[in-house]
Request: fold
Amino acid sequence: MGNTNNSEAYVSFQNVQKTYDGESFVIKNLNLDAERGEFITMLGPSGSGKTTCLLMLAGFETATYGEIILDGTSINNVPPHKRNIGMVFQNYALFPHLTVNENLAFPLQVRKVEKYEIEKKVRNALEMVQLGEYGSRRPMQLSGGQQQRVAVARALVFEPKIVLMDEPLGALDKQLREQMQYEIKELHEKLEVTVVYVTHDQSEALTMSNRIAVFDDGIIQQLAPPNVLYESPENAFVAQFIGENNTLSGKVIAINKEICTVEVGENETLRALAVNIEGIGSDTMISLRPERVVVNPENGSYPNIVSAEVIELIYLGDHIRSRMKVCGHDDFIVKIPNSAHHAQLKPGNTVKVGWLAEDARALDAPA
Amino acid sequence: MEQSPDKNILVTADGIPLKTSLARAQRRSKFVAFMMVFPLLFFIMIGFIVPIVDMLFLSIDNSIVNRILPNTVESLKNWDPYANELPDEAVYASMVDDIKKAKKAREHTKIGTRLNYESSGFASLFRKAGRKVQKIDKPPYKEALIKTDKRWADIYTWQVIKQNSSDLTDGYYLAAFDFTRKFTNGKVEPLPEKDSIYIKLFFRTLLLSTLITFLTFVIGFPVSYMLANVPTRISNILIIFVLLPFWTSLLVRTTSWIALLQQEGVINDFLILIGIISEDGRLAMIHNATGTVIAMTHILLPFMILPLFSVMKTIPKSYLRAAISLGAHPWVAFWRIYFPNTGPGIGAGSILVFILAIGYYITPALVGGSSGTFISNRIAYHISNSLNWGLGSSIGVILLVIVLFLFILYDRIIGIKNMKLG
Amino acid sequence: MNTFLRVMTASAVMAMAGLVGQVMAATELVVVSWGGAYTASQQNAYHAPYMKRNSGIKIINDDSAGSAVAKLRAMSQAGNTTWDLVDAVASDAMMLCDEGLVDEIDHNRVLASAPDGTSATDDFGDFIVSPCFIPQIVYSTTFGYRKDKVSRPMTSVCDVFDLVNFPGKRSLEKKPINNMEWALICDGVAPAKVYDVLGTDAGVTRALAKLDTIKSNVVWWTAGAQTPQLLADGEVIVGSTYNGRLFALIEEQKQPVAMLWDWQVFDLDGWVVPSGGKNKAEVMKYLRFATDTQRLADQAKFISYGPTRASSAPLVGKHASLGIEMAPHMPTDPENAKTTLLFNYEFWADNRDDLDAKFNAWLLK
Reply:
């Protein structure tokens, strides 16, 4: 079934289902393959099932149905301490009664590694995260970012097959978080280790991942590289969850190959890329990125040109964010680049806005 | 703010030194803070400091002899107690005079009671003297007093009085360590082994308290672990069961153990029913040290569980998961990662249970028989039965010193800051 | 409480007086006793009949006899003695007398003679242990045994020391008092010489050696309720306690227990008059009534403690609610009192501290 024949898969979830109470699924039917050395992120709102997935991979939860394969062997019945999986926790879970060195030595000691070998590996791991002089400190004596690095070093020091990270940067402030994203990404590339990363922060996911699995309601809504996910969301949930997005709901009235015509609001028709629609007469939701909208286009230069009323303007330096009323929707956002000749707008103005049919994606209409 | 010209101190705009201004501004809030802690301070003074100081004082106070027999004490100063000679006429005259005054003040039996702690017979000697001394109105007082009771002709009687005529005494402490000062030669000697009580009781108390502390730990640790790791909704209910003993009278709990443990009791009946013991082999589990240990382990268990529970609740579950994911077997993870982090709770629980145990006396008195009583039972006896408060206090002070010593030891080895009471 | 009771009873008396159209000043006597069944027996036997005969007297019960020594000391220091009469055990009475907190009594002048003319001092005999003490009841420390757990009835206190014929556990008080005396008697010391022997080191050793023979079979009690419970549970076959507790166990709870009166040790409870009392004349009148031969016999209808007058013994009747003859249950009944010891206050005042230490050292071995 599914992807069993995929020879490149290093980690593989096959038809995995999970329930806690026997009445409802937390994971409905999960199929996911990750390649060796890949940085794959599970992204989704809380309660979407992404952390459960991670815990099943680590062995702290068991799959109710289905199989989890790691490096060619099923690990369903392997206890967690024998899976050889490194894990970084949201609160770091550094052992407070041990020094940094002892924390790092712990996974090596339980593997009965020779003492001099342990010392060497711990030293290397600490230098790798630039904490060479902090080995004899206790975790409490380190800053949040330093603790984070220790936690990463500890998850890597025993050269695990795969490293799991469960919202590891959640406790850090924004600036530090961005720096750590960069450092983790760099480590990943240097060590060529496979990483499964869980977060609810989409910008973090976009920055770091090779591929992102967007979770909602116990299923993967879309699994794709960041740029594909942003440019070509396959359904309304992904479109709305990833990045900023304008939505215009309407009814499909015509389909011409890849382009469909959608009736929106009061007899306004728009042309959009038919991505995920059921057919003529069905409800749809057009998704359109705010930066793809052009203000005051020349007549005829865009297949979609409609009039818009400027409601609100926010100056953000590199661009101006404008909220407009378009086709009856008063939450239509347009990003106007702060270029030399950008349009000068004032609230209350009525202008024209236009966009390409390819930039507007007709998706499923959420209930 | 400006720099004052003569001194290099900071002043406010109106020239008042900054520190004075600050103190003035803070005075009111300091006063309010003091008034808020005052009731507690007062309560601690009255309920804790004063009784302890009083106990320290009682354990060495011996002023009663000097107060009731002032003339005798004065005239005995020239008498050598070890010269094998009775005191002279002047001493007897002072004694007669002192007893007459004491009789008038109705205090002659108090001095008798005091000296009776040192040597049997003084209670009746002074009661009798109080009855007869009024009739002695002229010298020779020596013969007249000896006529009332021939014990007045015993050098030993006077040696005891002389020995106790200073305002302070170490006698209570000697007694508390099973030593005695021979009145015949003034030398301090240990009591014969067959008469020694207190050292044995101190050791037994410490030994059994250690055992009780260990048992509360062995039983309490898994319970606390479970309480800390079930959902709060369930642990709240289970905590009530832990606390239930607190809401039951100590006597009820203790007597319930009697009903369970006695030879004709529930447990013995059950063991016979399932054939583990025979009718003749009924186990003696109460009225001995076993009974004390069982009943007190039960009674003190909450004092171990609550600190352990509160510490375990603060240990993130992710520690164990992290250790396991790092490759440790769950047992290794528990022992090397979880257990060391419960240290503050173990320390606090053990100290609480141990200190409470060495001070317990009601339960040991009811279920301890002769092999399960504690040193505190002797303190209780001396405070409320024999009324020998001096001896009771000295034992109390020694117990206090032992506790403080153990506390300091704990601080040196583990560190008091590593203790968490909840 | 005391003031409250006073106000309540006083207003009740006033109301009643108003009802019958007479107003008279009632004298109130505050009588301190032990409360519970014991005070009730005094109310029934003494107070109620006395008030019936003397309408000008109101007797108010105060239950603080347990702390009487401390309270009398405090009242004396404050110079305001509000108590008129106090019920005390003999040893407390002696201590209070020594400290001058209670009055000495001329027993023959204050108290009634026996119906046959015997003087009060002769009628009370040895029970007048202090010049301040007016004896009231005799209670004893004695044994009860399980009839169903012995092969033949126990008749001698020495049966307690006989593990061969009476195997099983016995309960004794965790004190040297009484146990040392019984041990010596059963070791062959003539009862009259017991205290002479116990006054020597050899005698103490001898008594403890005798107790050694049963030590491993003894359950030591510290509270009077323990022996009745141990007997009821079958934990011990024989045990010592106060006779009133055994009466309740046998007659009220119907347990298969019988009395072993041999060498029971009498102790006394009686009246003392606080020195600063304000109604002494009335108190003396009351005492003459309440301690006469009939009144002391009457108290035994309500509680199984013996009257202290020799002349009262033949007058003891039936229990007021159980309806059984009380005489056979009295420690002072001639049948029960063939062999008795009277608690030796003088000896134990002198020797308690020393013997208690030795006894406890022995227990530790």
User: Anything to note?
Assistant: The CA atoms of residues 86 and 156 of chain A lie 6 Å apart. Chain A has eight helices and 20 strands. Confidence is low (pLDDT under 50) at residues 1-6 of chain A.
